Amino acid sequence: MATRGALRRTYTWIAAHGPWSAWAWRNTAFAVAAIPAALPAGLGLLSVPLWLVLVLALGPLLGRLQRSRFWSLLGLEVPEVVRAHPWSTPKGVAERLRSDATWRQYAYHLLVSPLMGLGGALQVLVWAGGFAGASVYGWAWALPPDRSGLGLAGAYDLVTVAGALLLLAAPWPAALLTRLDSAAAATLLGPNRARELERRVEDLAESRAGVLDAADLERRRIERDLHDGAQQRLVSLAMNLGIARATLPDLPPEAKAVIDEAHREAKEAIEELNSLVRGLHPAVLEDRGLDAALSGLAARAPLPVELTVDMGTRPGPTVEAVAYFVVSEALANVAKHARAKACSVRVDRMPDRRRGDLLRLVVTDDGVGGADPAGGTGLVGLRKRVGSVDGTIMINSPLGGPTVVTVELPCGL
User: What does the CA dihedral 235, 238, 242, 245 come to, rounded to 10 degrees?
Assistant: First the structure.
């Protein structure tokens, strides 16, 4: 069974790579199609100045022809270099002269294209020679001996075998030319890969910043809607219930109990809604800045918090929001896991040569230490929130404490 499987795979491979296969003819057609695009460069054999002028003048057209050849015959897309200005304008000409992509494309047209055209011509000769040799008996039968000019009487068998071997080998030079041409086109005809990656990284960074800003604006809108809508209705409901309890003393005890219970639940709902609103986006952060918002966090914390803020000008709204929620989550982690007696939060602004000003947050507690991001203590959420704005976080938490969480956020967002 194994032998039959190996034979079947061998037959399949031969059928897929033989001179009659689609693979062979596709590569051959691709190699031969390089000849017309190489003709302007071939004029260099007659006149070097004419060669340079033609290639330089026809560079854009030759580029389109080559891209069409790759796409039509191989299904391979060679991206075109995006230009900010059309070539017919002075800015467009200057842009192309300064661009390394322009000179890489001309290097392809002046060096690679002529070589590929020569290879395509040789490929035609290989196929023609193989066909002529393999069919030598046909030529000998069709032409009389005195007109055949073959002079190969007695050597027809050898010529036939040589022609057949040449036909069997013909697809492989075409495949090699196809691979070399594809690699050269990807390097020279397309955009610079390193710069393209840089551009994509910049686009992704801008898109992410836009998403963060949009998410922050949406949180603010929801906070305003809740504060001005549902929260105000609950406050009005609680006030009406309180007035009813105070002004209707003659109600039956059952009715008073119902009003008292509704009043209590309305007040609890208001408190829960206040917590939800602060979790979305505290209004004090937008109105009075990070210092006031962190002061409110420190006042509501279940343990003493020493807060120091020294940051000069306010950072961007996105960074302010991230900083606020980082401190909020850090204090929640301290209260839940650290068994600490006290905590300190320091916020300051520091210069950085690579990324501009940085907003540095340092949260220190005197708890038991041993904080592990893999232990489900909320530190994973801190890392993700800080990473959303390209910030950094460092956690130093030896067993026995203290735990120091240092966060640096770029102020440019």
Answer: 160
Specify the residue for token string 């003393």.
Answer: 249
- For residue 314, the SS3 value is coil
Greatest Cα-to-Cα distance within the chain, rounded to the nearest angstrom:
137
CA-based end-to-end distance of the chain: 66
Q: What is the pLDDT of residues 334-377, one digit of tens each?
A: 888 888 888 999 998 887 666 668 888 999 998 888 777 666 55
* Three-state secondary structure call for residue 124: helix
DSSP 226: I
Long-range Cβ contacts of 350-357 (<8 Å, 24+ apart): 350/408, 352/408, 352/410, 355/390, 355/410, 355/412, 356/410, 356/411, 356/412, 357/315, 357/410, 357/411, 357/412
Question: In a 10 Å sphere around its CB, with 0-12 CB exposed, 13-18 middle and 19+ buried, how is residue 30 labelled?
Answer: buried
- Domain 288-410 matching CATH 3.30.470.20: the answer reads no
pLDDT at residue 148 tops 50: no
Note the pTM of the prediction, 2 decimals: 0.48
Interval 116-137 mean pLDDT: 85
Instruction: Classify 375 as helix, strand or coil.
Output: helix
Burial class (CB in 10 A: 0-12, 13-18, 19+), 145: exposed
Query: Shortest CA distance to 359 belongs to which of 404, 394, 310, 405?
Result: 310
Tokens 């007659």, residue located: 46
3-state secondary structure of 97: helix
